[in-house]
Amino acid sequence: MVSSQAATVDYKDISERIALLIQEIRDLRKKNAQYCKGNGNSRTMNRTAHEARQLRLQQIKEELSHMMKMRIEERL
User: Fold this and answer.
1) Is residue 1 domain-resident?
2) What pTM, to 2 d.p., does this model score?
3) Under DSSP, is residue 8 helix (H, G, I), strand (E, B) or coil?
4) Which of 39, 46, 70, 75 has the most neighbouring CB atoms within 10 Å?
């Protein structure tokens, strides 16, 4: 069994992290929308940045999933 001190989660830190991730998601969505509206030439030039944003969105998804798993395990 895990000690209560080790199992304690700082929800303020988690809330702050989630707020930062939400803002980052908004920024990424805005940039992706701009990318999708671009013409052929600008889309080709910005493809690498678009792919990096897609990767970052996947990383955020995985981080949030990890946070949820930690929360579930804490309840057990």
Assistant:
1) no
2) 0.71
3) coil
4) 46
Distance CA 18, CA 6 (A): 21
Question: Do residues 14 and 66 touch, judged by C-beta distance below 8 A?
Answer: no
pLDDT interval class at 8 (50, 70, 90): low
**Can you give the pLDDT at residue 9?**
60
How many Cβ atoms sit within 10 Å of the Cβ of residue 32? 15
Residue 39 lies in a domain: yes
Return d(Cα 71, Cα 76) in angstroms, integer: 9
Q: How far is residue 43's CA from residue 35's CA, in Å, rounded to a whole number?
A: 6
Q: How many domains does the chain have?
A: 1
Domain coverage including residue 33: 12-75
Q: At residue 56, what is the residue type?
A: R
- 15 contacts 67 by C-beta, under 8 angstroms: no
